[in-house]
Amino acid sequence: MLNLQDSALFRTENYIDGQWVSGGIGHVLVHNPANGEVIAKVTDGDADDATIAVEAAARAFKTWSRMPAQQRATLIRLWYDLIMANADDLGALMTAEQGKPLAEAIGEIEYGASFIEYYAEECKRVKGATIPTIANDRRLQTYKQAVGVVGCITPWNFPSAMIARKAGPAIAAGCTVVIKPDPNTPLSALALCELADRAGIPAGVLNVVVGSDSAAIGKVLTQHPDIAKFSFTGSTAVGRVLMAQCATTVKKISLELGGNAPYIVFDDADIAEAITHCVATKFRNCGQTCVCSNRIYVQSSIAEEFITGLGEAIAALKVADGFADGATLGPLINSKAVEKMDELMADAVEKGAKVLMGGKRHELGQCFYEPTLLTNISPDMRLANEEIFGPIAAVQTFETEEEVVARANDTEFGLAAYFFTRDVGRVMRVSENLEYGIVCSNSGVFSTAVAPFGGWKQSGIGSEGGQEGIADFYATKFHSMGGIDR
Ligand code: NAP
Fold this sequence. Notes:
Bound molecules: NADP nicotinamide-adenine-dinucleotide phosphate
Strand order of the largest sheet: 14-15-16-13-12-18-19
CATH topology of the largest domain: Aldehyde Dehydrogenase, Chain A, domain 1
Distance between the termini: 73 Å
Strand content: 15-25%
CATH architecture of the largest domain: 3-Layer(aba) Sandwich
Shape: globular
Number of domains: 2
């Protein structure tokens, strides 16, 4: 049993219309991926629960959207304060259900909360416009109005932040939300509801329906006539399906989908820095982030030095249960994810990859995998084309800037890209030529509530963070006012 300072944060029922609701179609079992133990039995909601939640959200929208932004902001800010005050407990819940090291989990809680704080401030500043008139008896104005009920589906890899990045701006704008969190990690989502309830966010504004029948709940959230907008974070394959479902009722959509991030190190880079950030971007959350460096390209003249240093840095990672002191690499989310590592490795080795470190399951338990370093990577290998989503670093070499930019862009994905060089002209050229929604030079750290995070190409539509992250929750209305001179 988890030892929380505030045990009331451990919620196992759905949160619908301000009530904790049991029933559903049974229970979802939540496992600790570090040891396989069942840590919770959570209500398994179904399409009927999702429909009831959408109807509650539609009722709540009538009053919430009309509440002055200042008042909404006060309640949302209180929610933020409660999340920050309970960050240790929320982090512990996340480590228990998701596996990431506790320090990383608490970092995610604070990162997610920063979006809630930012949008509580930002909603007070969203403005329409007065447009110079085209005739003296008319006046032209635009209003920004909350779009309506928002359906959200979120993944397990960031069980708290992916909800905060959607729900924060949505409710700040005056929308109401119905969220289906991933059934692997529902406890983080439900604890956020408990704190929203304590903050006084009214019934129906924030609803969470956990459910194992994702297709059935997904249909409600993408097709119910009361849903005005749908926001999804997850894989590109599922994003395509949900986008098609949204087409039947022409919903506004935001999609944060998969990535295949290039990590490019030029020969004039600060190699020590490039290695440090490479390990951070590759192994964060055991390699399970959409912006993990996936294809590591190193200019051939420095390849040996870089690979040696990278190997040393990887060897210093501590693979352990996320609650262990000093843990830097926890387990993968489930055994299916481990099987995928086995498959990618078998394919790469068969096609000539050289295994410098790791390459197999870790003795710590069923979901652990050894941090792995591979060289001799060729473009026909699966891991050179697909999201690896695990702790395998695969290094390729290149000769020229033109060549590596072309190779980096040769993918259907366009989420994040990293490069290291001290040549300022190259910094500008490469940042402009990479076909990605996010480019990060000379660092592996970029994500913040104050800037837009979003993918190009098949990595998504829209952005979370910055002014862009709230804009999509408003609809623009044009008011043409006549009869002024009468
Ligand atoms: P996934 O397989 O697409 O699943 C995401 C969520 O969608 C899960 O909760 C899943 O629930 C649900 N889902 C699956 N099929 C559905 C359907 N037909 N209808 C409704 N819901 C459905 O992705 P994942 O493997 O969990 O997450 C990792 C992916 O997310 C990676 O590709 C990663 O790059 C991406 N990601 C992107 C961002 C970003 O900001 N761009 C951030 C984080 C993650 P069930 O599992 O129960 O079916």
